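Re: weekly structure request thread

Next one in the queue (266 aa):
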Amino acid sequence: MLELLQDPVVATAVAAVVGLLVGSFLNVVIHRLPKMLERGWQDQCAELRGETPEPRPRYNLVVPRSACPACGHQITAAGRTYHLPDPFFVLATQNPIEQEGTYPLPEAQLDRFMLELRVSYPSKVEEEAIVEQTTGTARSALHPVLDAESVLAMQSLVRRIPVSRGLIRAAVSLARMTRPGDGEAPGFIKEYVEWGAGPRASQYLVLGAKARAAIAGRPMADLEDVRAVAASVLRHRIVTNFAAEAADRTSEDLVRELVGGKGWLA
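Done, posted below.
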């Protein structure tokens, strides 16, 4: 055994395993054990008082499924399901420079989100306004501008906006061209993409185009609306491969190159 440990490779491997075990043990002792002891003590006190210990809730957030409007729209806590009223939607935030306590969502969950919106730093003028408005004593009163019925009416209006058959074909072609196994996918998609966007992307390209037309006050969506929402709809649905990472290619610029081409407009 001692002779094996004198081998640098074996010694390094043993040190790595020991470090992993020690780190896991310290994580349990420092972070989890106090909470476990606290919960156990609370349960014991409840039993001494003749009470039933309170069940520990397990939270499961169900994101609404756009492909099936009757699905989702509920949360489950402590084994009990609560149905949520309409309008119902989910917002999730992620800080690209801080991962402590956060976990990336699986691709199947990301696909449930209609858009990925990227918020950069504010402009100098905007930042000055933020500082001016938040460092004094003035407090602004909040007044509601919409109620639930109004939001539902606007959602219904968006769905009633007509689109041409050509726009639907273009949206479906654009989504399908992100899939490396599709015959219409361009060479750079086959080279850099591991997994492309699914049918929800086609749905959201059309719905996003309709919503953009409604915001602009136009009675009908067009291809420019699809082009405008394409990046927000597609970039979080495209999984790049190792070749893309080596070439410093991201889903963002792959979508930009794809939308800039003419293949999906044919």
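Residues 8-48 form the longest helix (41 residues). The chain has three domains: 2-48, 55-90, 124-129+145-265.
Next request, please.
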